[in-house]
Amino acid sequence: MKFGKSILSPSYTRPPAFKNIEAGEKFYSFACINCNQTISVEFDSLIQQGYSWQDAFGEKLADKIKEFYRIGVVGKSQDGGYPSMILVECGNCKTDYLVYAGVEEVSNSVYVVTMQGITEILEMPEIRQEVRGN
Ligand SMILES: [Zn+2]
């Protein structure tokens, strides 16, 4: 895996983008840096991904991703939640993006999602399909 440009980088102070018990936008959207197409990621997909992305990417890639996004040995995201990763593809130019969010279960089945990273992926090795968000 080769990382390209980042649209969003990890932050300790960024406010959450989503809380699953509140009405509001169900998708996080950003513009493709290569063609400006809008790309959307469902917050629920990030919540459901949980830790399973590490198995889907494999240990070696997961470690590389954690190093890139500066996720420490404790394995927590910068917002204090658990890190979730999803791959999304631009529907127009097919650029792959690695989307990183912190997910915290603040009480039973109440989840808060903080967006932590969006990075263009220049070279993508074979990975299991379930890590794809679109
Ligand atoms: Zn594009």
Account of the 3D structure:
- The protein has about 130 residues and is an alpha+beta fold.
- It has one domain (about 1-125).
- It is about 15% helix and about 40% strand.
- Strands 1, 2, 5, 6 and 7 form a 5-stranded antiparallel β-sheet that branches.
- A hairpin with a 6-residue loop joins strand 3 and strand 4.
- The mean pLDDT is about 90.
- Bound molecules: zinc ion.
Short structural description:
By secondary structure, this protein is of the alpha+beta class. It contains 3 helices and 7 strands; from the N terminus they run E-E-E-E-H-H-H-E-E-E. It has one domain.
Count of individual helical segments: 3
Distance between the termini: 19 Å
Structural class: alpha+beta
Strand content: 35-45%
Largest sheet: 5 strands, antiparallel
Number-wise, the strands total: 7
Unreliable spans are none
Q: Any idea how many domains?
A: 1
Share in helix: 10-25%
Mean pLDDT: 92
Radius of gyration using CA atoms only: 14 Å
SSE order in H/E notation?
A: EEEEHHHEEE
**Global geometry:** globular
Present as ligands are: zinc ion
